[in-house]
Amino acid sequence: MADVPLISVLMPAYNARRYLREAVDSILAQTFGDFEFIIIDDGSTDDTLALLKNYAARDRRIRIQSGPNEGVSASLNKALALARGEFVARMDADDVSLPTRFEKQVRFLQQRPDYVLVGSRCMLIDPDGFPICEKTDIAFEHEEIDSLLLRMSWPLVHPAVMIRTDALRKVGGYD
Fold this sequence. Notes:
Number of helices: 6
Strand content: 15-25%
Structural class: alpha/beta
Distance between the termini: 31 Å
Shape: globular
Radius of gyration: 16 Å
Order of helices and strands: EHEHEHEHEEEHEH
Low-confidence stretches: none
């Protein structure tokens, strides 16, 4: 890992014990390893923080901050303030990323400097990790995304997004 990582992975975690290991392991198993993993424990009352500290002791890319429960947006803004990477990759504590996610997303953004964000399709799974269905109403182009934003709440799957850090900061972070 370089002194300044290319990617800052932002992940809020609140009482995430049930899914946390699989989520964190999926990030640590990425084929593209030049990242810092900023995890905000949002006032968990289970053993989420203890699990995160265990991971941080084993992998120097993990940076943990803990505070009172303030919600996802506040946690993401705390993480964004700590981010050093050119790109921000979002992750949630109950999601799983495929191993080549970062590799593919970084390549896409590096080859297209006029793009600020890239996402991906996703498979919706049940609490036990079994597939339910592929989320197919994903937008691929700017106009399509704008149109879907008027009709639905998530045309992009946020924990599958990678965005240029400067663009995210220019819009004021998370609201």
